[in-house]
Amino acid sequence: MRDTAKHTARRCRDAAATRQAILEAARTLFAHDSYEYVTIRDIASKAGIDPALVIRYFGSKEDLFLATLDKGNCSSLPGGEGMELGHGLIHHYISHWSKQDASDPLLIMIRSASSNDNSDLLRQVLNEQFLQPIAEQIGGPNGHLRAELALSQLIGVNIMRSLLHTEALSAIPDEQLIQIVGSVCQHYISDELEETSTSQEEPIERR
């Protein structure tokens, strides 16, 4: 009886380790290449396992891709007391994602943004894990627009820092980056947005 319990516990540990190895391999590969070019065989090879195990643990490539983005949820951003939401957004990015490229959900999404294979999936994840939680915290009729504008700053910083490795932005201290980009994000979140008139100007007659 005791041997059976030990065997079951070991199998559970092995299963958890295998699942984690697959997830880490997928995150690494998706963070360095587009969704359409990363194959199940590539992921299995990186994890050192049989490709059939990838399907066994995650069901499909699409489900595995979704699992790699699980760390991207913005539902618990700091903001309000002690830290404005704009600064909380960039602080969340710096402290949770940017230090570990292979775990950075925004980087994974950016790499696959040009893929036609999962464009609908990307929009769904972007909305559910990033935009909607931010928009709900902002509130108001322009909440979603403000969320998109603020998130565009993070995506821009991510491209410059993590993909292009531009010199100045890569060298700037995290706290300074949080203050600068946080202020821009906060502008989009709380300042008045300019409204464009829907009326068309009368054409000027040429004589």
Which SSEs are present, and which pair or pack?
Blueprint: H1 2-30, H2 40-47, H3 51-58, H4 61-68, H5 85-96, H6 105-111, H7 119-138, H8 143-163, H9 167-171, H10 174-190
Helix pairs in contact: 1-2, 1-4, 2-3, 5-10, 7-8, 8-10
Write a structural description:
- The protein is 65% helix and 0% strand.
- It is mainly α.
- Helix 1 (2-30) packs across helix 4.
Key traits:
single chain, 207 residues, mainly alpha, 10 helices, 65% helix, 0% strand, elongated, disordered C terminus
Question: From the structure provided, what is the oligomeric state, counting identical versus distinct chains?
Answer: single chain
Number of helices in the DSSP assignment? 10
Overall shape: it is elongated
Percent strand equals under 5%
Number of strands: 0
Rg estimate, integer Å: 22 Å
Low-pLDDT segments: 4-9, 197-207
Helix-strand makeup class: mainly alpha
Quick recap:
Helix content is 65%, strand content 0%. It is mainly alpha-helical and 207 residues long. Mean pLDDT is 81; it is low at 4-9 and 197-207.
